[in-house]
TrEMBL record:
Pfam families, per database record: HTH_1, LysR_substrate
Aminoacyl-tRNA synthetase keyword on record: no
Keyword set includes DNA-binding: yes
Protein name from the UniProt record: LysR family transcriptional regulator
Molecular function per GO: DNA binding; DNA-binding transcription factor activity
CDD domains given in the database record: PBP2_LTTR_substrate
Top-level taxon of origin: Bacteria
Species: Candidatus Enterocloster faecavium
The HTH lysR-type domain, residue ranges: 1-58
Length: 317
């Protein structure tokens, strides 16, 4: 039964008069009478006692009306749930850190929408631990990060391996290193050709650190403890673009990826030296992380493929 026909019964039950009910329903009296007659004939029972005035529901009519209200309400709820599910499947939610969002998302979203032009996309920029929590609670469909935890509940697909190194501005670079290093090596210094330095040469330098809630902070703390480095001063920030800008102002050295530098725009930046320590971890892997049971799995796999095969290779190395 449609909600419209159910409404006919409800109004007639309230008005207890066919003429008044038809007027209230904006239909003719014969139309309402025909509707009731057809329904009673189909059911084989009388729903209304029309031998008396006012018209009243029979016992069967009361039961039928009550059950039909429950059925129609349940159907409406089902329709709403189906619509919500359909909306969820046309919305794609990505969890990603701020820096990689700036570097990757414009190109990723541009290419993804070429394949899925009607896709609604929500980017949730958050620290990795928070993104992992959102993924666990189905608040996002896909996250990008380097935390490879919980392989039971999540699938991890490697996207790239990002270089990590110590980067020291020229005003803080120990003179002993510059004096003892071959000039040709200094000229070749780059992310692909870092200078090997000793831990004790860092202890007298100020350092710029990521926030303690960021994954990179754990890597840095491990290095500080492993090499017994005691910074003379620390500056801490959760924004790595801000941190890189302060480095280029000569306020401290950093342990991070030089891929952040293209996002920084400040006047008269300091020259920097790319360095490493003996046996220092010099890279970290980035993953696409998701649940394989996610209803948006096709879009997840497509987005991961686009990032890995088109977006990342096109970025400056």
């Amino acid at each position: 039964m449609t909600p419209e026909k159910l409404n006919y019964l409800l109004v007639l039950a309230e008005e207890q008069n066919i003429s008044r009910a038809a007027k209230r329903l904006f239909i003719t009296q014969p139309t309402l009478t025909a509707c009731i007659n057809n329904l009673e004939r189909k059911l084989g029972v009388k729903l209304f006692d029309r031998t008396h005035n006012p018209i009243r529901l029979t016992g069967s009519g009361k039961m039928y009306l009550k059950k039909m209200q429950e059925i129609v309400a349940a159907e409406q709820l089902l329709n709403e749930d189906i619509k919500k599910l359909e909306t969820q499947q046309t919305e794609f939610r990505i969890g990603i850190g701020q820096i990689h969002s700036e570097m990757w998302c414009p190109s990723l979203i541009h290419l993804l929408l070429k394949k899925r032009p009607f896709l609604n996309i929500r980017i949730r920029e958050a620290q990795e631990l928070r993104s992992m929590e959102m993924l666990k609670n189905d608040e996002i469909d896909l996250m990008f990060g380097h935390i490879s935890l919980d392989i039971v509940n999540f699938h991890f697909e490697e996207m790239c391996e990002e270089k990590l190194m110590l980067i020291i501005p020229e005003n803080l670079m120990p003179k002993v290193i510059l004096e003892r290093t071959d000039q040709e090596l200094l000229a070749q210094n780059s992310p692909g050709c870092p200078l090997l330095i000793q831990p004790d040469q860092l202890s007298s330098l100020p350092i710029i650190m990521p926030s303690s809630t960021q994954a990179l902070y754990l890597n840095l703390k491990q290095i500080i403890q492993q090499y017994h480095i005691d910074p003379v001063r620390t500056i801490q920030t959760a924004n790595m673009v801000t941190a890189a800008a302060m480095l280029l102002k000569g306020l401290g050295y950093m342990y991070f990826s030089p891929s952040v530098f293209p996002l920084v725009n400040i006047p008269n930046p300091k020259q920097v030296y790319y360095c490493t320590l003996p046996k220092m971890m010099d890279s970290r892997k980035y993953y696409a992380i998701y649940k394989e049971t996610n209803p948006n799995i096709e879009t997840i796999l497509l987005a991961s493929q686009i990032l890995k095969e088109q977006v990342i290779p096109a970025l400056p190395s």
